[in-house]
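Give me the fold.
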Amino acid sequence: MNYASLLSGLVQAADRSETSPVLLIPYMWIGDFVRCHTVVRVLKDRWPDRPVDVLTTSLCAPLVDYMPGVRQGIVCDLPRGQLALAQQRALAARFRAQRYGAALVMPRTFKSTLAPWLAGIPQRTGFIGEVRFGLLNDWRRGERALPRMIDRCAALALPAGTELPMDWPEPQLQVPTDHITTWRQARGLDGRPVVALAPGAVGPSKRWSYYPEAAQALTAQGYEVWVIGGPGETPAAEAIVAAAGPKARDLTGKDLRDGILALAAANLVISNDSGLLHVSAAIGQPTIGIFGPTSAWHYAPLNPITAVIETTTEVPCRPCHKPTCKMLHHKCMRDIATGDVTAAAFRALEAAGLPAAQP
């Protein structure tokens, strides 16, 4: 089954004329949030006249501004690890005011379904998860049997039991050129070819060890290097800038919008398996992804990327999909040499018409 054939069948469905708004409750990690834009695209293909809103945290909210097909983001920062019933009721009141006809709940947690239930949204779709039979009224089984996260997310936008395609619509982030120009001018960033590095990731095992050496090799060939990430990546950015010299810039900070615009402005992006890898790929940037403990088949962006870099040595425990290395050797990342990454970067830059130029 391919997506075009699936869509052809959906277009003929009797509910094509439905116009009630749909609420999407995605995962709130940056990469998963981007991945869920595929679900928005499937919903708009099924029901072109149904507005689609997305629940978001303050962190992820800037992404919504660049997602075609999303009417609005509903920003709410519910505390982690707490039921927060008063806040859930307040959120439910906001949902009720929008008169949603359906809610799709990606996370499997009890509390992620509570506000849609309190709001009385007529159709509440999700996998069973944490004993949510009463909170969901369109509950699905078989999540763990689905091979990829994108399949688990997008399946909820289709009727139960639908044969799933392998070629889902790719996530899209559309960043206007004038936004990029204004951002560069405000920061005094010139037109030199730029390689953006994203050294962060959730968990130390997913962080490649040799970004400072790679940055040094790139700046030595005349490229500028920007280090992108949140406040947690600032120490790594400082080490990279110290190694690479004045052509390297620390652009880490609290506002994800800065990161989005920096990625959109760069000529090439090198990233660990992290949220920024998905952001860059969804923008359509030339992107190199470095994978250690995680499987690129399961977790790489649905969008095509320029290169996937993995160790070529035998690491029996890989992929473990763990945020920390239980074996304590970190070989799946340490065995990826600096030259493996920089060679891929120079090939990509050459292909883009930006060959190395000695400063």
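The chain is about 35% helix and 15% strand.
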